Amino acid sequence: MAEGTDDRALPATEELALAREALQAGDLTRAADHVANALARAPTLPEVHETLARLATAGGSGGLDLFPLHHHTFVGAVVARAHLLAAAGHPAEGLDLLVAAAAHAPGTDWAGVPWVTSPELAERIGPDQVARVLMQVCAAAPDPVPRSDRAALTPYLTLARNAITIHPEHALLLGTASALARRAGEVPLAVRWAGRGVRAAPSKMGEVWLGYALRSAGRTREGLAALRRAVDHDPDDLAVYADIAGTLADHGRLDEALSWIERALARNPSFDCAVHTAHRLRFQRDGDVRHLVALADYIRDNPDDSHEHADLAECCRGRPWLGQLTPPTVRPQPLPLTSAEPSTGRPGTPPPSAEATRRLRQLAHLAWPHPPAAYDTAVALATLDLTDLLGLLAHPPETPENALGRVLSGQDPALWVRCVQVWTCLGLLHHRTDEPWPSSTRRQVLVELAQAAEIAEAALFALVTAAWVDPSIRPDVAQVVTERLAAAASDRAGPLPVTVSLAHLALATPGLDPECATLARMLAGAPARPGRGTLRGLLGRLLRPFRPRLPSPPP
User: Fold this and answer.
1) What is d(CA 190, CA 173) in angstroms, rounded to the nearest whole number?
2) Whereabouts are the TPR repeats (predicted)?
């Protein structure tokens, strides 16, 4: 479905005036275009529908020929055809098109017209058809729908009420109506309808709808009981197990939640909902990043999940380096490359090109969903050459003139330099990816940059991100991170200010040695310097194998 609008779009009243002129001139195609535009801007305006009716009378086939459906059809034309279908005695087909428009542009009141809310419609199309329409509406809407968009659901709630008045014991109708009411914020109504549906005909889906409604009403114990009855109806529907586990976890009952998810995995170890939920709950239990890495591996190896999951992003959100920059521990500075450029030895580093600056400013941000998503975003820098990438580090662009730039300028402009460093180093991961990792330019430059205090965090984050997306390099990256953290923590003057951030980076590293993880937790979790005895013992063991691992420069 096409948008069909731009900055030159006319108000609905002007579109109507042009439509009437075209009608009077007999140019029905042009009139139809203007009516479609008017419908897109004011879908419930009576004058628009009056003009559409005049157009239908003037055209053949009730005006339907003027609004054909193609692969990309303007949404206004789709809605016009929906109304004409209803007028021609095919309201079910018209409803299907209105629902399609709602999926394309949620929050717009496409269905707020008399023929949809009329009691006669529910009687004409029957309860099964109404239930199917309500399911389509629910599938296209979030749960719950944002308050600002709920008015667009009111006509469908009216349709549901009208149908339930005629068919008060139709279980499928009651269940789908409950699902719609819940999304629209009508939670008591959702509970009432779902309860009636279960009493009329107990079923798995009826109990699921009731469980969701009760959960939304804050009646968690009753909601869980309904979901358990749904499992009794169908022990093989593992999505319900995952819902039960998620609900239990949300209310602090993590052990019970894990028990339910283990039951699901015992039935099908590869079921996507259970796998996502299991890794999320295990991470909630012990905070070990290996669960999130395993989930990322599963997502990479199973791109065709049954539906979209947000467990990985939910776990990483707001966590240092997993989902965002840490607060600055040292004042970031442009990389001092005035005497020698890493890897090349040429004196000085020229400023980046205008194109490199443009790309960097477009993608740099303080947060990301998770490390693999950050890696994917940075592919926009893949075609920049090494001189441009190093130029971005040596000569950070000015803060962008957008929302992010305004926030940073008002709070801490130095954060922008950190953004530049992080995203440029992520861009380095995409440099000459045909080179084998051990001797690659990207590895050599990032490891070298990781030794510079001004940019160590950004370079190490790029290396850690590379380990998330490429299991084969995890031992190498883990050793680099271990050595860098140990070196920072063993400084003669005591752990450096950057050490806390490096500790969070270590905790985000796949395959980190347990002793290094212990040190990292100590450094990240203690506001003051940890006891020297404990720290000295860990550092002694970690530093024994400390050796630079830089490969020879590529030929």
Assistant:
1) 12
2) 238-271
- HEC string of 477-535 equals HHHHHHHHHHHHHCCCCCCCCCHHHHHHHHHCCCCCCHHHHHHHHHHHHCCCCCCHHHH
Q: Which two tokens stand for residue 309?
A: 């999951």
Residue whose C-alpha is closest to residue 15's, from 52, 63, 60: 52
Q: What is the spatial distance between Cα 176 and Cα 247, in angstroms, rounded to a whole number? A: 21
Q: CA 537 to CA 541: how far, in whole Å?
A: 7
User: Please, what is the angle between helix 220-233 and helix 238-250, to 10°?
Assistant: 160
The amino acid sitting at 548 is P
Taking each continuous run of H as one helix and of E as one strand, the counts in the chain are 28, 0
Angstrom distance (rounded) from CA 487 to CA 40: 63
Mean pLDDT of 311-316: 96
552 pLDDT tier (thresholds 50, 70, 90) = very low
Question: What number is the average pLDDT over the span 480-496?
Answer: 81
Residue 480 CB burial class (10 angstroms; 0-12, 13-18, ≥19): buried
Residue-by-residue DSSP string for 182-234: HHTT-HHHHHHHHHHHHHHS--HHHHHHHHHHHHHTT-HHHHHHHHHHHHHH-
Q: Which residues contact 388 (CB under 8 A, 6 or more apart)?
A: 352, 353, 355, 356
Looking at the chain, the whole-number percentage of residues with pLDDT higher than 70 is 88
Q: φ, ψ for residue 2 (rounded to 5)?
A: -95, 150
pLDDT higher than threshold 80 for residue 335: no
Question: Comparing C-alpha atoms, which of 493, 501, 464, 483 is closest to residue 539?
Answer: 483
Secondary structure class of 393 (helix, strand, coil): helix
* 363 closest CA partner among 377, 375, 351: 377
Query: H helices of 71-118, where?
Result: 75-87, 91-104, 114-117
Q: What is the 3-state secondary structure (H, E, C) of 337-381?
A: CCCCCCCCCCCCCCCCCHHHHHHHHHHCCCECCCHHHHHHHHHHH
More reliable by pLDDT, 6 or 96: 96
Helices 46-58 and 12-25, packing angle to 10 deg: 20
Q: Are 453 and 330 in contact (CB under 8 A)?
A: yes
- Counting every residue, how long is the chain? 555
CA distance 69 to 43: 19
Q: Is the peptide bond before 142 cis (omega within 30 degrees of 0)?
A: no
Mean predicted confidence (pLDDT) in 269-281: 94
Asked if 238 and 268 count as a contact pair (C-beta separation under 8 A), the reply is yes
| Residue carrying the six token digits 């990985």 | 312
Rg of the chain in Å (alpha carbons): 30
The residue behind tokens 């197990």 is 241
Give the residue from 148, 86, 129, 146 showing the smallest Cα distance to 111: 86
